[in-house]
Structure formats: C-alpha cells, structure tokens
Amino acid sequence: MSDRILLEPLDVDDPEIVAAAFTVARDCELAVLGESDETLDSVRSTLTGPLAWRAEHRLARRGDEIVGVLLAELDEDGREVFVDAYAVGEDTAAVDHALMAHGLAAGIEYGRTHPTGQPVPADPYTLSTDLWQVVAGCPVADVEHAGVLAGLGFRTIRRFWRMRWDLAGVTTDVPTPPAGVTRRRVDGDADRRAMHRAFTESFAHHFGSTHDYEFEPWLEQIVALPGTDPDQWYLATLDDEVVALCLCDDSRASTGDGYVRTLGVVDSARGRGIGRWLLQCAAADAVARGRTGLALSVDGQNTTGATALYESVGFVTTSEIDVWCYPVLD
Predict the structure, then answer these.
(1) Mean per-residue pLDDT, 73-86
(2) pTM as predicted
(3) Long-range contacts of range 66-69, CB-CB < 8 Å, 24 or more positions apart?
C-alpha cells in the first residue's frame, strides 16, 4: 500500500461517502478525546447546509483507505472561511496538515480574489468583516491538531466551553416565572421574526457577531442545523413584549441529552432572572422528553455573565475548544 496521501473532492450526494466522512470524524474525536459529539446528522449538515463550501470539502486517502476528511464552510456576509479537519490511522499529523493546508490555501485564494475594499484592522486576529479570515476550531486537548494549526500560521483568538447539566432530580414541573414574564412556543411567521429580532439584539455585541443577520438567511441556517425541532423554540415576553428566546434541539439525543442551541435575553430585560428561568424550563422540557442531561456551548470569555449563570444552575464544563484564526492579507 502506498504511503502517499491523496486528496480528492468529497461527493456530498453519495450516502456512502458521507457515512465514511462521519466515521472518520467520530473515530478521530474518540481517539483524541475519548468521546465524540459528531453524529451522521451533524456531519451531513456541515457538508450540505447553507454555508457548506461544497467545492472545497476533501477526502484524504492512503491507498484505498480513507484516512481523513476536510469540512469547509464559506460565510460571504461574515467574510469567513471555516475549515475543520479530521485524521485517523497512522501519521495523522501528516494527513491533518495536508487537509488543513488545502483548506487554508482555498480560503486565502478566495479572500484575495474577493477583496473587501476596507482597511485592515489594527488587530487582524480579531474577527472582523473588514477582511477575509480563515477560522478553525480545536479542542484544547488536541495538542497535535493545535501544532498543525500553529505551523500553518493560525493563532488562537478565543476559547469556548462545552457544558452539561446532569438532570438527576429535575422534575417536569415548569418553574414559577419572574414577575410579568411568560413563555410561548414559536408559532408562525410573526413569531419567527420576533425570534430573529430578539436574537439579533441579544447577540449584537457578542464575539463572532460581525454582521447583521438578515431574517431569511438566518432562519435558513437555523433550520439546517442538526437535530432542529421547532417544537422546542420558545419566546419569553415581559409585559407582552418579546425580550428573550430559547432554542433547543435534538442534536445530542443519541447521548441522552437535550441541547440548548441558543439562549438570549435583550439588554433591557437582563437582571430579572429570565435567562435562569428559561434554562430551568428547558431542563424540565428535556426531562419530559426522557433526557438525562442538558448540554450547551458558550464563549468562555462572555461578558454578559452567561458562564456564571450556567454554572449556578448546575452546568459543569466538560471540554474546551479554542478558535484559531488566519487573516487573509495582501
């Protein structure tokens, strides 16, 4: 068998190839981290979702064996290319490097042929729509992948936490709401637009919110996420005004957990316990669905107090992921 690593386009319309890509991603995470959040649905979503850069997905082969996969996404509005590589078998660093080098080169080429016309920010390693950036995620525990990213010129710019709440002892009883606050399931176009407005205002100053999210593309991305279930989308109102949203899904159902995809409270309604109450409602809903835990991801440097809130209700950090950035400069 040849030791040469060959990269080839990934056919997202071939179910066997998509299944093989999932297997590589899962087995890579199991080997490195001892656990995996990847599912066939999550990999398929990345490969075919609204941001999928289908032309740049890649499989890595050594002989007849598939030993790696590159998943690529292209965000035109955010001027961001996201690349994620997985490698298995022998000499995973070489496979990882070949995949990431391809993704980086594609991102650089795209950025340089689609100039923004804006001056380069003082710190090009801060997410910005003023220039194109190639971005990657890396679990803190994955030292080998971090070495590959550093060797290619990426730098870390942020750290996210994956958190989980063990729901043992939590009941299906909906907790008492804060004064003047009610919760309703999202129903119809008007509610979906209210959900979008609450999201945009809640996350306007958060890390990664580098552009305005128009309603239609935003909703398309939400619907395309793995495990999406509109029956688990809720709005909270304060004196009949929508001030918060809580979107949960079934993306972690295979592990027995519910998942909080998005929790946001507008600035004017913070400090009233609405976020805590929505989390407690989500926990009760998860128990009613037979879930044993509730999971989420959060910016570890979040300035709104979200991390402290999550810890106070029972969430604990299960892993940490660094965001790495490569700015596309002339």
Answers:
(1) 96
(2) 0.92
(3) 66/20, 66/24, 67/5, 67/24, 67/92, 67/95, 68/5, 68/24, 68/92, 68/95, 68/96, 68/98, 68/99, 69/10, 69/20, 69/21, 69/24, 69/25, 69/99
Give buried/exposed letters for 14-37 (b at 16+ CB in 10 A, else e).
eeebbebbbbbbbbbbeebeeebb
Q: Which helix (H) or strand (E) holds 125?
A: none
- 277-319 per-position pLDDT tens digit: 999 999 999 999 999 999 999 988 775 678 889 999 999 999 9
Which residue has 């005004």 as its token pair?
241
In sequence order, what are the residues at sequence separation of 6 or more whose Cβ sits closer than 8 angstroms to the Cβ of residue 145?
Answer: 32, 85, 96, 138, 139
Looking at residue 251, the DSSP 8-state letter turns out to be T
Q: Tell how far CA 39 is from the center of its chain.
A: 14
H helical segments located in 114-247: 143-152, 189-202, 215-224
Q: pLDDT tens digit string along 256-275?
A: 999 999 999 999 999 999 99
38: which 2 tokens? 């990847």
pLDDT at position 330 = 74
Q: How far apart are CA 197 and CA 203, in angstroms?
A: 10
Structural domains in the chain, CATH included, are: 5-153 (3.40.630.30), 163-319 (3.40.630.30)
Contact of 219 with 251, CB cutoff 8 Å: no
Between these two residues, 72 and 1, which has the higher pLDDT value? 72
pLDDT greater than 60 at residue 73:
yes
- pLDDT, residue 139, reads 95
Residue 323, both tokens: 């965001």
